[in-house]
Design brief:
Blueprint: E1 2-7, H1 12-24, E2 28-34, E3 54-58, H2 64-74, E4 78-81, H3 88-93, H4 96-115, E5 120-126, H5 150-169, E6 173-178, E7 181-182, H6 191-200, E8 205-208, E9 214-216, E10 218-219, H7 220-233, E11 239-242, E12 247-249, H8 250-261, E13 268-271, H9 286-291, H10 300-313, H11 315-321, H12 325-334
Bound molecules: nicotinamide-adenine-dinucleotide and thymidine-5'-diphosphate.
Thymidine-5'-diphosphate binds next to helix 6 and strand 8.
């Protein structure tokens, strides 16, 4: 038996990771620390909250004594840090909380990891720390960090701190940098679930700028399998890029969603661009594929079909998520666009 502390395990990727581990790894205990912000929801773990190998703790990663108590109480051996503020648009409106959670929160976890002799620390990071690409090329692990948004700047800061703890005090760590994820339980502030939700309700689809921004989309389960492999087989102190080798413009993705839902392209509405919008991301995952024998399990066409079907079969989850605060968020984020 091994015991891992997963932070942010009630969010989109974290909940998919927790579900995968509880389903596929019978010898792993998962302690899930999540403060349940607007993005965290125990409904994302439906059917797994009371799993015998799952222990949910509501709390903040910035709370050092709590983190240390959890490590002691459960004899935690490794930490996988998903907890974060994760939406670029929100970071442009209110960057402060991104520094608090993503930087100060990571620092708190790192200190606790060191004090408590944690065997391995996995920092779940993003390709956005590398900045934006022109028409050619891909990000490798050696690409220079050049973050452009407050979100990516906070994630890059956290990555530097993790590496500094490894360099200065010998903390055993890995950093994973993944491209854009899509799949079940993603909060509908992010592009794919937002467009699915609007399309199903016959609402306008707000496309930023010219819609020709490029993202490299990866199905969330495939991100989770990569993180598991890094946790088990990653080389000490190494960073691993994870991507789908699947570049699409936003208009291509939106076109697929409309086609699958049988909705008209007339719903597409071009709106004011995001300030500082990164033009293109593309990830070279050769290192993860060769060193860890990792590869995605589905193509984008398969993954997006599964995802759209899931949202259409889970309208109760979606309706619940978009009630209350979400309406206020949508109103304020899109009113001046
Ligand atoms: P999310 O916003 O869906 O979930 C974040 C979770 O963290 C929520 O459950 C929230 O309640 C929790 N949380 C926030 N602040 C906390 C705090 N102070 N203490 C404890 N819990 C807190 O995010 P996501 O999309 O699942 O992303 C997870 C991680 O993966 C993030 O670190 C993000 O930077 C990274 N990442 C995301 C993507 C993507 O496409 N979504 C791609 C690459 C990397
Ligand atoms: P998003 O899902 O916010 O991820 P990120 O900004 O971290 O890549 O956005 C994905 C792309 O979709 C990005 O180019 C911005 C664009 N986008 C829109 O055009 N309209 C929207 O309403 C949203 C949320 C995003």
């Amino acid at each position: 038996m091994s015991t891992i502390l997963v932070t942010g395990g009630a969010g989109f990727i974290g909940s998919n990771f927790v579900r995968m581990v509880l389903t596929e790894q019978t010898d792993c205990i998962v302690v899930n620390l999540d403060s349940l912000t607007y993005a965290g929801n125990l409904e994302n773990l439906e059917g797994f909250v009371d799993h015998p190998n799952h222990h949910f703790e509501k709390g903040d990663i910035c709370d050092g004594p709590l983190v240390e108590k959890i490590i002691d109480d459960y004899s935690v051996e490794a930490i996988v840090n998903f907890a974060a503020e994760s939406h670029v648009d929100r970071s442009i409106v209110d960057p402060g909380i991104f520094i608090q959670t993503n930087v100060a929160g990571t620092l708190t976890l790192l200190k606790a990891a060191l004090d408590k002799n944690i065997k391995r620390f996995i920092q779940v990071s993003t390709d956005e720390v590398y900045g934006s690409l022109g028409e050619q090329g891909m990000f490798t692990e050696n690409s220079r960090l050049s973050p452009n948004s407050p979100y990516s700047a906070s994630k890059a800061s956290a990555d530097h701190l993790v590496a500094a703890f490894g360099h200065t005090w010998g903390l055993d760590y890995n950093i994973t940098r993944c491209s854009n994820n899509y799949g079940q339980y993603q909060f509908p502030e992010k592009m794919i679930p937002l467009m699915i939700n609007n399309a199903r309700n016959g609402k306008a689809l707000p496309v930023y700028g010219d819609g020709l921004y490029v993202r490299d989309w990866l199905y969330v389960y495939d991100h989770c399998t990569a993180i598991w492999k890094v946790l088990r087989q990653g080389k000490r102190g190494h960073t691993y890029n994870i991507g789908g080798n699947n570049e699409k413009t936003n208009l291509e993705v939106i076109g697929l969603i409309l086609e699958k839902l049988g909705k008209s392209t007339d719903l597409i509405t071009f709106v004011k661009d995001r300030p500082g919008h990164d033009r293109r991301y593309a990830i070279d995952s050769t290192k993860a594929m060769t060193e860890l024998d990792w590869k995605p399990s589905v193509t984008f066409e398969e993954g997006i079909a599964i995802t759209i079907d899931w949202y259409m079969q889970n309208t109760e989850w979606l309706d619940h998520i978009v009630s209350g605060q979400y309406e206020k968020y949508y109103e304020s984020m899109y009113k001046d666009r």
